[in-house]
Amino acid sequence: MAERAFAGFRTEYGGDPAGYWVAPGRANLIGEHTDYNDGFVLPFALPQHTVVAAAAARRPNWSAWSEMNGERISFDDAGMAPGAVPDWGAYVAGVVWALREAGHRVPHAELAIASDVPLGAGLSSSAAIESAVLTALADLGDLDLPVDDRPRLAQRAENEYVGAPTGVMDQSASIRCREGHALFLDCRSLEVEHIPFDLAGDGLAMVVVDTRAEHRHVDGEYADRRRACEEAARRLGVPALRDIDADDLPAALDRLPDEVLRRRVRHVVTENQRVRQTVELLRSGRIRDIGPLLTASHASMRDDFEITVDEVDTAVTAALSAGAYGARMTGGGFGGCVLALVDAAFADAVAAAVTGAFADRGFTRPRSFTVLPGPGAHRLS
Ligand code: GAF
């Protein structure tokens, strides 16, 4: 991919880039819709990533070319307010904007972007672009910007520039993950613990099934879930649902006026607990034993948070029937990908079982691949 970014850079700008920066997509092992509730998440970085070839610009503006559509965009200091740069360019302009809002002198730059993170599959292709661009600009400009502070800035680009009301998980994963580890992130304090997650060493594999289910009403439904959580927290008199302890859940549910709010709260509170239990098991090297927690998380997303669709439920059921230790949808929901934890020797059989189940239901053929936890954003050369 660096070669593709290099070729794009050469064609668009002439000359050579000053360097290459990469940032991965992510899969979330467990902890869904907990980030904007100040809760806990446990993502890991994917081997699929975005590469940015970049150099200081000769003109006082920013230019970005993307191999995605072969398009090049440019904007300058005056033309970069939120809304000014649309579509994919907003991920680039949003990062420049967020850095400047935070008081950084952002170097004018020429960028060429290549990526193999599947688009629209719930694997954070947008966070990968934001994180790669941010890492490149921070290095090029020698900005005083500790790595731990970067995810919030990239999130600000996503929230205030792109206009998606997401939490901090995806950018944190793309920037802070470590190879061979999952990232246990407290989304309130932003403290992290890198949890060893050596799938291969244990003879295991993580199958990712891209269900290719069309995302339906995804933006509106996401915002709606977030609003419901905030309303429930307000009614319960806590800053965020993170502050409801699992032991206090029955009493909290009794105080809520309707069944929908009760279901949303039950998902978030139990999901935070499942993240902590998963971390405990991984700390003691018991990877296989996390399977039932993954599957319980899926049931909670399906029944209480109501963010799954037929295709993802079918993939989970088929993977479990074919012998997966656990399976769940990963990401924001309403389509996207399913993770299945399997013995490495059965990875192909599990993927084939899902493909068969999709054919039986008349769904679009899914794409499956296996992944190992990769590194977070860094300079390639
Ligand atoms: C999307 C969002 F971008 C994340 O912040 C997170 O809320 C996730 O959905 C659900 O866990 O990926």
From TrEMBL:
Enzyme class label: transferase
Keyword annotations: ATP-binding, Carbohydrate metabolism, Cytoplasm, Galactose metabolism, Kinase, Magnesium, Metal-binding, Nucleotide-binding, Transferase
Pfam families for this protein: GalKase_gal_bdg (PF10509), GHMP_kinases_C (PF08544), GHMP_kinases_N (PF00288)
Localization per Swiss-Prot or TrEMBL: Cytoplasm
Residues with site note (Transition state stabilizer): R26
Residues noted as binding Mg(2+) in the record, renumbered to the chain: S126, E158
PROSITE patterns the record matches: GALACTOKINASE, GHMP_KINASES_ATP
Active site: D170 (proton acceptor)
Chain residues that bind ATP: S66, G120, A121, G122, L123, S124, S125, S126
Top-level taxonomic group: Bacteria
EC number: 2.7.1.6
Pathway: Carbohydrate metabolism; galactose metabolism
Family, similarity comment: Belongs to the GHMP kinase family. GalK subfamily.
Record's protein name: Galactokinase
